[in-house]
Amino acid sequence: MSRFLDVGVASLVPYVPGEQPKDAGYIKLNTNESPYPPSPLVIAAVKAESEKLRLYSDPETSDLTAAIAEFYGVGQKNVIAGNGSDEILAFIFKAFFGEKGAACPDVSYGFYPVFCSLFGIKYKPVPLDENFMIDASAYADVTDNVVIANPNAQTGIYLPLDKVEEIARSRPDRLVVVDEAYVDFGGETAVPLTKKYGNLIVVQTFSKSRQLAGGRVGFAVADESLINDIKTVKYSFNPYNVGRLGIAAGCAAMKDREYFDACRSKIIATRGRVAYELAKLGFTVLPSKANFLLIRHGGVGGEEMYRALKQRGVLVRHLKDERIKDFVRVTIGTDDEMDVFLKKTAEILGELK
Ligand SMILES: *Cc1c(COP(=O)(O)O)cnc(C)c1O
Fold first, then answer.
1. What is the pLDDT of residues 35-73, one digit of tens each?
2. How far is the CA of 207 from the centre of ligand 1 (A)?
3. How many other C-beta atoms lie within 10 A of the C-beta of residue 163?
């Protein structure tokens, strides 16, 4: 730390992303990326767009918001795009949460409390129930704004849409942000509810289900007045927040529905098979509607499992949060990758005996 660092920044505990090893030898099941490449249409669009990199990108990201609006049947004015959904979330926290604070599940996406400390926002963790499920009724008494991930980060557990609606309806004077990073793997999106609830913001990303984690594209859908408020932050920070390549990639990915459906169907099928095999090996597997599984084995600790797999060339994620420290989180890769993961896992368990 230099002697120049602002005291407010010195006290921040930053978000720690999963490892991105330069060594390509690992089977990488640690950051919930897609194991499949982007659609060929995305690659062609990015190549064509690269000719125009001399020029700034469109600050309104119009082509991209039009493609998103068309996909979801909402108005283009109801959509804002960002440099990944992390940026969109940051804009939302900054725009709306200063006075009221943010209530979030105690086990969820690790960035929510980090944004709170960055922007000086009160963070209120709301416990998941004993089955690691979001308890919608627990939010009825909370006056803070609400941020939930659905399916939830880390657990993969999905909260039925009527429960999301209940949270939005119970207190119209606070905002409810639903982070749907994993919704395309078996959940139902709350986007249509944004037409009915002026206090609901749905956030999504192209990083997980659309093969573009490195493209950095995310978006939010909400009432036009909320989108305009978010734009006030964006235009006070980084007007060209999505680059030309991101816009081109995002547009093409949104339009290639066939490829999107093929990739997510494969992941859903692989997830079912892997969950079944893990249960046979004696693991507790939380019921996931995401592209990962949170798993625990009585015989091996979470940290130990993570290390043993890493030694065998498989990277998974171990999270240190108290409630899930006995688990590891395993991203669903290709069938071949998951076969290696299952084989190494069985090996590790075998050595314990
Ligand atoms: C991955 C993830 C994000 C971040 O997505 P980017 O668009 O890559 O910034 C946001 N929220 C949740 C719950 C995630 O899992």
1. 999 999 999 999 999 999 999 999 999 999 999 999 999
2. 7
3. 18
> Tens digit of pLDDT for each residue in 241-294?
999 999 999 999 999 999 999 999 999 999 999 999 999 999 999 999 999 999
Q: Is 218 in the pocket of ligand 1 (CB under 6 A)?
A: yes
Print burial letters for 87-97: b (CB count within 10 Å at least 16), e (below 16).
bbbbbbbbbbb
**What is the atom index within ligand 1 of the atom nearest the CA of 152?**
13
Whether 243 lines ligand 1, by a CB cut-off of 6 Å, is no
- Residue 273's identity, in one-letter code, is R
Record the tokens describing residue 297, joined without a space: 């084995």
Around Cβ 69, how many Cβ atoms within 10 Å?
Answer: 18
Does pTM top 0.85 for this prediction? yes
Look at residues 305, 283, 234, 263 and name the one whose alpha carbon lies nearest to residue 87.
234
Whose Cα sits closest to atom 2 in ligand 1?
181
User: For position 16, what pLDDT does the model report?
Assistant: 85
Q: What is the pLDDT of residue 353?
A: 67
